[in-house]
Protein 1
Amino acid sequence: MYVQIRNLTFNYKNSEEAILKDFNLSITKGEIISILGQSGSGKSTLLRLIAGLEKPNKGSIIIDKKIMADQNTFLFPEERGVGMVFQDYALFPHFNVEKNIKYGLHAFSNKEQSKRLKEVLELVNLTEFAKRYPHELSGGQQQRVALARALAPKPSVLLLDEPFSNLDAGLKTKIRGELGKIIRQSGITSIFVTHDLEDSETIADKVVSLDISSSISMKTGTR
Amino acid sequence: MKFLRVKHLNIWSVFSFLFVLGIILSNLLVFTSLLQPPSENWQHIKDYLLADYISNTLLLITFTGLFTFLIGTSLAWLISFYDFPLRNFYKWAFILPLAIPAYIGAYTYTGLLNYTGIIQSFLRNSFNFHVNPKLFDIMNIWGAVFIFTLFLLPYVYTIVSSFFQNQSASLFESARILGRKPLNILFTVLLPLARPAIIAGVSLVVLEVLNDYGLVQYFGIPTFSTAIFKSWFGMGDIDSAIRLAASLLIIVFFILALEKLLRGKRRVESSTAKIRSIPLHKLSGYKSMLAFTYSFFIFSLSFLIPLLQLFYWSLITYSNVLSNKFWQLLWNSIFVALVATCIIVFASVIIANFQRISGTKLSKTYSKITTFGYSIPGAVIAIGVMVLFINLDQKLFWFYKIVNPESAKLVLSMSIAMLIFAYVIRFLAIGFNSVQTGFEKVGKKFFEASRTLGMTTTKTFLRIDLPMLKPALVGGFVLVFVDVLKELPLTLILRPFNFDTLATKVYQYANDEMIPEAAVPSLIIIAVSLISIYFLNKITMKEER
């Protein structure tokens, strides 16, 4: 198994009740998983735990045989090598597209940086927008920049938090199709959370349903 | 007249026009005298003194700006992103130095550090240790930078920390996921983003330094404000005073332009609709101790130590100071502050309402001019208002004679009306900003609903707008009141003979080598300011919710 999550338990400081309790999940390499759940079901929290933005109370997260978190280990987000597309995209407003993408490529040489920038821009089909600033882009374009920025450092896993919640209903179907294609094309292991069953079924190989008591039911998606 | 189009002619537009005219006239008059031939004194000032004024002024604003930037931003960063012992206390404690006007800070530190002050006496009496008095001498330009930095620090701290706290956590988190360490993120993301906020804070600091008279005068540093006072009171040379005021005004214009340029045109706003604030990182071990010690050090210097010293002096001197004369003084201060504040709130409501209803370019220009007054140093406004009132007296002399055949030539310019007028010009911006924010929050829909229900503008204003605006009016009132209460340079120049306020009395005691006696009036000014800070905090906290 490429990603292994075992007995993951977590509660926020200000609440008594665990938002995730003994959660288990295994993902094979290249698989696209969708986590489906209502708001408050802990699905975004799960992504934050995988990214290292929260520290679990109990349990372990292993990605590609590397321990991200268990009783003795806790890697900081910058040490994990995962990619994440935030719900609000979180593009740096004072950087243009190129600088946003290169921000995660600090370990690469200058030459490699330019090469990788070109690759991901082509992948998301935004080559001519490299010098634009985030506020000069449409919502769908901003999302693709966020995706390109997350993919650029070649992360082990891609995490997407409610990728379609900020888009108009009319655009959603089109963008959903495009995004699914890009992710599939890049071949990266992906986990995305959503509250929309249709989103899940269009893009994912496997849907994990997460209700409030965090018991899970798995079903294979339409693909 | 271009300013008054008949189309918009109503009570709102007429009053707005009159207030704006007052601001424009009192500033333009400063420039008109430049057209007349200069006096002999001016030649002397220009040849021998002007270079000093400029270099001292530039040194003061550069270094105070630099230090308030470094300390204010670092405090804002610590408070916004880290948790350490007493962090919640420091969060608002760093705002408190704002309650201590720089001149009071200067008198207090001088008294604290001089030969008879508590530190040198303690070392002498307890350890028989005689220090080199030069080491403790702060009455020079670096001492002035030290004092300005301590007490103007909150301007940078408050603006930058509220900016940091309004940033979405996902920006910081995505930078970490992209492989950057927190300190690296500070320099690559947070500071560049905060640039407009930092520049806004530092500009306020610089304008306050240019406005100051009490501190530079006491420390004997020749700057524009001290020079204006000297030509006016020392040499009776109004012409040179006006020329100096005009030169200072040019520096102010230059700074305002520089601010605009540095802030940049690009609107840096986050693309996010939902803002989740950045969670605090708990510091531990030596880092936590370091953060605590640094915070304690700054808080002690900028608030705790001066306050304790003032309390101590008050205990020794209050019986001498609290005489009948003192109550007269207190009454004077409250009276002028109340009258000026009422006029300012009234004018703010009128101009803001005019702008809201008409929404024309003209009304927007009015509001820009209104806010401009706060950027102009007190000494410059004082000169402008003085010239305006002397002119008015000359024009109205025929009228005075009708009323009273034995009338003196100068009536208005000898009266308290001139001082109050000057306060209105200088502090109108503060009242106006509060009222305008209030109007923006209320919006236009209630106004429109009321109009469709058959009410006139004025009736709507009284029955709908005014009650809804109450919190903004109270907020604006308190802020303006405190600013008038602690104002020094305007008051010193424009007050009628034998008219003292708390601020001028503090100034007088300090200059008569009676610093301990200045403690009681100083503490009253500080206490009233603290109340206003509390109010302001309450208002902003409500906004954040």
Note: Residues 93 and 135 of chain A are 7 Å apart (CA to CA).
Protein 2
Amino acid sequence: MNELSLYILDITMNSVRAGSSEIRITLTEDDEHVTFSVSDNGCGMTKEQLEKLENPFFTTRKTRKVGLGIPFLKMLAEMTGGNVSISSVHESESCDHGTTTKAVFGKNHIDFIPLGDIVETLKTLIQGSPEINFTFTHTFPNGEVSLDCSQLREILGDISLAEPEILNWIGENLREQYDEIR
Amino acid sequence: MKSLEELMAIKAQMQDKIAVRTSTGNTRIVVGMATCGIAAGARPVLNAFVEGISAENLGDNVTVTQTGCIGICQYEPVVEVYEKDKEKVTYVKMTADRAKEIIEKHIKGGKPVTEYTIGAYKK
């Protein structure tokens, strides 16, 4: 994968499949690092699952025998001098369950890849799961870009966030926020 | 600025449009969006279908949805087309340009684009 935003899409899909109703994505940038985190209130993972997570030959899927999402992310982060940390509470342990994945990248490292089209990633996520409350914040030294699906849903009522007109508005709104900061 | 007022205006237009919708769609386009699909380029393919279906005003009859890995990772991006009373068509190694072509020839024209199907690749 050649864009950080594709890694974010891939990691967030794990949260979607975990049955989450709330998913928070944050991105922060300073002079040296890019950090993203994805937090959800999904089913979480057991300690056994968490231990095996970095093993590419472990997956809970039935369709194939490898799980490369986390290993890919870890490889990219470590290649740039960064790291990945994952914490999770399984639903059998507490009613306050869910998973947080955090990845730090060295922004100036030669192996760092561009962020790419994060707006497309967000539109893809909302298109696939319009019922999930995604929140997104991208923090820069001079401001931030943000999206809150629950706020939009309050305005839209019964209309799905996956309607093309709405997705377009979301995309254009985000791009305008980015233009203001840059 | 794409303001919330503008969003409310879109909502008002949409309510009329949704009110006249008669069915939830007879055709389903399903795009694989697991790690294998994403790594192979599924995001722009999905986007091309969503935008193409909307631009052609096919939204009343066609829905575009996402799915996980269906186990043929080497052929990703994979897109399946389900039409009422017809056999499922599986497209492999998809691109945004192929998506446009499939909307034109298959979704609108009714003829699957055989050269992009899994049957053509396996030979």
Note: Residues 89 and 97 of chain A are 5 Å apart (CA to CA).
